[in-house]
Amino acid sequence: MEKKEEKMSHDLIYQVYQRERQGAALSKVEKDFYEKVSLLIKDLKDEYDAESKTNPSSTKCMLLYDELKKVRTLFLEIYEYRIRKIALMALTGASEGSVDIKSLVGMETGLFEQLMVTLRRGYEDIGRVELGGAPAPVVSMPSVKAEPGALPTMGVTPRPREPTDETGKDIPAAPAEIVPVKKKKLVAVQILEDIPKFAGEGGEVYMLKKKDYASLPQTMAERLEKTGKARIMPT
Asked: Is residue 112 part of a domain?
């Protein structure tokens, strides 16, 4: 019997967020993950816009706005975790020649390939300098100014306006059910020896292997470096 495809929802996005937050490696998501998130955000915004036009002070309007805000926040957190891991994967591939990319989905493949090209050129430059040659000339890239509130390459409309009452005053949004996650400063490290599975301060589970690259909280990275188990990458 063919398995029925599960529709994207806030709960599913939260599950992906938990996996990305707790694991050092890129978690497995559906190949059309970004398309489904984009569609969910669009549907929520359309529903919110329709409700806010007819009854902006309704409970439904507040709940829709709150859910839309939480979905966007979770998605951006997921994207930041994944893009750090993709950058480390590209660094591994550029330096060692191969890397497992089966967990990349959608636009991530193009991003990974671009990073690989740039990093490989960097290694070629280092080789030329090492032999006494000059590095390749720097090519300026055109700057792109992002629109305020825009999501990365998702083509999603900016955050909806705050709902107002009949007098035009803003109506405070309902408090979010999920407590905002306090971001820790993360640093890139290279693992120098196999490290058995262990839990971080926030409950994250790590299983690190020799020659892996990982993005870890600064205090943990410094502790591993002091014990000779890892090396913090220069920034």
From this structure: yes
